[in-house]
Amino acid sequence: MDKRKWIMVTGLCIILLCGIAVGIYTFPRSIDVTLHGVKYQLGTDGAKAGTESATVVIHGVSRMSIWGDRTFKGRVTVVGENIPVPEDQRELEIRFMRDGYGPMTYVYWERVNGHTVGKIYGYHTIFANKDFSEVTLLVLSPVKLANGEEGKSWNGDNGFMITAPTSNREDAVALSNKLMHGYLDHPGMKQLQ
Question: Are 78 and 53 in contact (CB under 8 A)?
């Protein structure tokens, strides 16, 4: 084989292998997990308060772009939590940020005074490993804003968390710190306790 044909064959093989690698990396992954864990509060008061059982059910599809952006489409349900979003509109699209978190925000429609009105409901914030076999949720709590309106917030000093799979607070905090490492590396942030 002459040099020119050898270079062409080698180039085509490299392009083919790169295409296969990109296809494998970006191929949609079906997620269907039920994780048993705990809900707990951070901080000294939280350590005294203990934990309660929590179950997180995740059904959907996870995708990774060739640029490394991760997206999940589907449902994330915390068993026993009631939310004001109609059951038939609970499909989420979670775009994970570079430091690992994904805001869980529902966009849905409701009839109000004879008109269809678009609504938004901010739920929790999720951190998950690639196959969603480990998750931690920052539980947003209602707060009164400076303008008197209602809002939601989470605090790393005494906020509530749901972490799975785990059966106790110590393991849950360790798993949360592992999943949240990119987020906690920001200035002013510290390891959870």
Answer: no
